[in-house]
Specification:
The complex is a heterodimer of chains A (612) and B (250).
Chain A: H1 9-32, H2 37-41, H3 43-57, E1 62-75, E2 97-101, E3 110-116, E4 123-129, E5 140-146, E6 153-158, E7 168-183, H4 185-218, H5 221-224, E8 229-230, H6 231-262, H7 266-287, H8 298-336, H9 341-384, H10 387-417, H11 422-443, E9 449-450, H12 452-468, H13 472-483, H14 487-511, H15 515-523, H16 528-559, H17 570-579, H18 583-611
Antiparallel strand pairs in A: 1-7, 2-3, 3-6, 4-5, 4-7, 8-9
Chain B: E1 2-10, E2 16-25, E3 30-34, H1 41-48, E4 56-61, E5 64-65, H2 71-78, E6 81-84, H3 96-101, H4 110-113, H5 120-132, H6 148-161, E7 166-170, H7 178-195, E8 198-202, H8 206-212, E9 215-220, E10 223-228, H9 235-242
Parallel strand pairs in B: 3-8, 3-9, 6-7, 7-8
Antiparallel strand pairs in B: 1-2, 1-4, 4-5, 9-10
Classes of the chains: A alpha+beta (612), B alpha/beta (250).
Chain lengths: 612, 250
């Protein structure tokens, strides 16, 4: 394209048409979003706007003790035909009293209400009380009375349309504040909920950060691009996951049952906690020598594997014992600690969490381990075996792996949608898996290293992007159903959203690290894990801290509204008060949110500066 | 003895970085690799420890085929090959001692690395290597607080931690000023002469080649264009290696 082109008429027309199109689109937007200033001009709107704005400007934080002077004065509406008037109530000379002129009136007439002997400088409403009961809480109309320094006031009010033969009342309620201001009930509620909000954000951030870190490594292109494996190794490690998870789960649950049989006696627990880590440590110490120059013999390696397995089981036993101990100590502490009973509660809950997640953890660990061992065996096999042997081995392995994966996926679908048709949820997927596996084995060269890293990377990225596009508020709705209304649902929702969005941000940081140190560490003979620990992690600490702080900011802000859907925190209170038209209370909560968000902003920026 | 046979590397974009290169390096030799920027020096050195996978050809080291080694075997081979880089490639935010200890990663059990633990002997050894390159007092500073020359000495100490039988130095002095260059080169010479470690060092300055190298190979556009003693590079050879328009400096 040359730059010295003269403006042609066609260009001008194009620009004109484009502007016209833009205007049409914009005009359509006006209609869609119902822009209507007429509404704003209507008197009703303006009145409510003024009322709400004034309420918002007076957050209900402080209040006074108040004393009230209530005086009822009888009145006939309409006037009695015999001309009798209601008799003024008895009173002593110092009591406040009302004078009404005229003494009776028809509906719609304006009367004058004068008050005498009230306390000076008080305010309150003058109202019409229908029915013949002076204690009736129902009242109509409202005029604001304000006494002068002599305790006298005068207001005019219109008699509402309540006709009765019985006597009715005019009531003046004048209030004044006494004593010093103190925090209102709203202020206390707001304080409680804002504390809940801050801790909700804290837990979600911590929980999310821990899980996002490992995810971020497998979502980083530069780390995953170099991960390549031959098909034998891939299919074996794919098979390793479900088998390992099953075995690990069963084994660790067995350990858990054994631990339960041993009992929750504190001393037994304590002994278990002390002895099992020592045993596990000694076992690992023996089985994993720090440095080895020569390759150990085959028998030695098997012996070591056995010892490691035992050590791991022993340490899981220790974990169960720890959980049991934490729960029993927590229970005791909760009973005796009084206002610090939350420490006991915390201990108990931690114990409970450990007891619940340990089998799952064991399953995952075993799955990962078995997968990596089988994968390595596959790698070795494809390096050492002859090509034809690998080809047929691949055929069998990919067949089994394909059937297993698709079968499990089918069962997941069955569980989710309850189709109840094994043709579609079991045999069909298994057949597809078998064919896909066979095709893969036939189409790839047996010794070729396949870019499995990029496959895992793409799956992880897709998964992260999909989950990230679901708002935390929507997740909260799901978790409210799963774990009930309350802050825990909020923690789960915010935590999950934190995981996926932090994992993405983190992985982008991993992708932008210097490759030089990575190359240097790799050249020393370090394996992948060591490369990550010594070359990747030191480089990503500052951005990780920075992003975690940023996320903490977001979580505090999100946690203030997650209560709208039942996720706990101050949002619930805020929404309730807005719905009850209690704008002064809502204003107090908005103020609290603003203060908390601003101070978190400040704190996190200070911390960020310190950390980097 | 390192034998390189018909080594060829073609990058994904189709660039032929190495074209049928063959030569041999006897144990304990100081070999200089020279050539213009982009002539394939770095690729050649990185093919030897397979940081870059060669496309074709064979590399034999004391009879062992490096190009055919499995991942597990490669770890054992790499830990005997130290490497020194032009840009030092230290982990900036780590301490100097940690950077040096990283040289042992090929030996320590990965499970212990997870806990960031090194054996006690390695700690002592790291201090000793730092003493050898003359910056023991900097051991507990952050690596990026050091000057360029000091950083390169840390890089050498890291390579020494590997108890290497061979050191690959990829333009180790190209980012340093000439005075420092001699200090770094004399450390490499010390390793070569006193420890009997073979050194393969790519260099830009011919006077450094004359001063330190036992033998020279020269690359031009991926092809081996010269192999011989440093003193054999006369003006005619020089033009062949560096092109017709090149002038000798220094």
């Amino acid at each position: 394209m040359k730059n010295n082109k003269k403006a042609s008429p066609w260009n001008s027309i194009k620009v004109g048409l484009l502007s016209l199109l833009a205007m049409v689109i914009f005009a359509y937007g006006f209609q869609i979003t119902k822009v209507d200033l007429e509404e704003l001009r209507s008197e009703n709107r303006q009145q409510s706007l003024v009322r709400v704005t004034r309420a918002l400007a007076q957050p209900e934080i402080f209040e006074y003790e108040q004393v009230e002077e209530i005086v009822n004065y009888p009145i006939y509406v309409p006037c009695l035909s015999d001309g009798n008037q209601a008799s003024a109530p008895e009173r002593s000379a110092s009591d406040p009293y009302l004078v009404i002129t005229p003494a009776c009136a028809n509906p719609g007439e304006v009367i004058q209400v004068e008050g005498f002997n009230f306390a000076p400088l008080t305010v309150g409403p003058v109202r019409f009380v229908p029915g013949n009961d002076p204690a009736n809480v129902v009242s109509l109309g409202r005029e604001n009375a304000e006494t002068d320094s002599d305790g006298h006031f005068i207001v005019s009010m219109e008699i509402p349309d309540r006709v009765s033969d019985d006597v009715q009342f005019i009531r003046a309620t004048l209030r004044r504040n006494i004593g010093a201001p103190h925090f209102s009930k709203t202020a206390y509620d707001t304080w409680n909920k804002i504390v809940e909000t801050v801790f909700l954000a804290l837990l979600a951030t911590v929980f999310g950060t821990f899980l996002a870190i490992p995810l971020s490594f497998i979502a980083a292109r530069n780390l995953m691009k170099t991960v390549k494996s031959p098909l034998t190794s891939i299919s074996l490690s794919v098979l390793g996951w479900p088998i390992g998870i099953l075995l690990g789960f069963v084994a660790v649950r067995g350990v858990g049952n054994f631990s339960a049989v041993v009992g929750s006696n504190v001393w037994v627990n304590l002994a278990g906690i002390i002895v099992s880590p020592v045993l596990a440590w000694l076992g690992l110490r023996w089985a994993l020598p720090q440095e080895e120059i020569t390759r150990p013999s085959q028998n030695m390696r098997f012996a070591r594997l056995g010892v490691i397995l035992l050590a791991v089981l022993v340490s899981f036993y220790g974990l169960f014992q720890l959980a049991s101990l934490a729960m029993s100590i927590g229970q005791t502490l909760e009973a005796v600690l009084g206002s610090f009973s939350f420490l006991g509660y915390f201990l108990f809950q931690v114990g409970d969490i450990v007891a619940i997640i340990t089998p799952a953890l064991g399953g995952l660990a075993a799955g990962g381990t078995l997968s990596s061992i089988l994968g390595r065996m596959g790698q070795l096999g494809s390096e050492k075996l002859p090509v034809s042997g690998i080809k047929s081995l691949n055929l069998i392995l990919t067949l089994i792996a394909g059937i297993t994966i698709m079968g499990l996926l089918g069962q997941l679908i069955e569980w989710l949608y309850e189709i109840g048709e094994p043709m579609y949820t079991l045999w069909g997927p298994m057949a597809v898996g078998a064919i896909a596996g066979l095709l893969l084995a036939v189409l790839t060269k047996p010794k070729d290293a396949l870019p499995i890293g990029m496959v895992v990377y793409s799956i992880t990225r897709t998964f992260l992007n999909a989950l990230r596009s679901v708002e935390a508020l929507v997740m909260a709705i799901v978790f409210v159903i799963a774990v009930g209304i309350g802050p825990f649902a909020g923690v789960m929702a915010l935590g999950l959203h934190t995981i996926v969005s932090l994992a993405k941000l983190y992985s982008e940081q991993v992708e932008s690290i210097l490759s030089g140190p990575l190359e240097a560490i790799e050249a020393t003979g370090a394996n992948r894990l060591q490369t990550i620990i010594y070359a990747v992690i030191p480089q990503i600490v500052p951005p990780y801290i920075s992003y975690t702080m940023y996320r903490w900011d977001i979580n505090v802000r999100m946690s203030t509204i997650i209560g709208f859907v039942g996720g706990g925190g101050i949002g619930f209170l805020l929404q309730q008060n807005i719905n009850l038209l209690n704008y002064r209370a809502a204003s107090a909560q908005m103020l609290a949110i603003a203060v908390v968000v601003a101070s978190m902003d400040y704190i996190s920026s200070v911390l960020r500066e310190k950390a980097i | 003895m390192l034998q390189i046979k018909n080594l060829t590397k073609i990058y994904d974009g189709g660039v032929k970085a190495l074209d049928n290169v063959s030569f041999e390096v006897p144990d304990g030799q100081f070999l200089a690799v020279i050539g213009l920027s982009g002539s394939g020096k770095s690729t050649l050195l990185r093919c030897i420890n397979r940081l870059i996978e060669p496309t074709a050809g064979q590399i034999l080291w004391n009879g062992e085929d490096i190009t055919a080694a499995s991942q597990e075997e490669m770890r054992r081979i790499r830990r005997k090959i130290g490497m020194v880089f032009q840009h030092f490639n230290l982990v900036h935010r780590s301490k100097v001692i940690t950077n040096v200890l990283a040289g042992r990663l090929g030996y320590v059990n990965p499970a212990w690395s997870l806990l960031n633990r090194f054996p006690k002997e390695d700690m002592e050894k790291a201090i000793k290597q730092l003493q050898r390159v003359g910056i023991a007092e900097k051991a507990y500073q952050r690596a990026d607080e050091l000057s360029g020359g000091q950083q390169q000495r840390v890089g050498i100490a890291r390579a020494l931690m590997q108890d290497p039988k061979m050191v690959l130095a990829d333009e180790p002095v190209a980012s340093l000023d000439p005075v420092l260059a001699h200090s770094i080169m004399s450390h490499l010479e010390d390793i070569n002469k006193n420890d009997g470690v073979s050194v393969l060092c790519s260099l830009h300055f011919l006077d450094l080649v004359h001063r330190y190298a036992d033998r020279v190979v020269a690359l031009n556009e991926g092809k081996l264009v010269f192999e011989g003693l440093p003193k054999d590079i006369d003006d005619k050879k020089f033009k062949e290696i560096y092109g017709r328009d090149a002038e000798r400096v220094g």
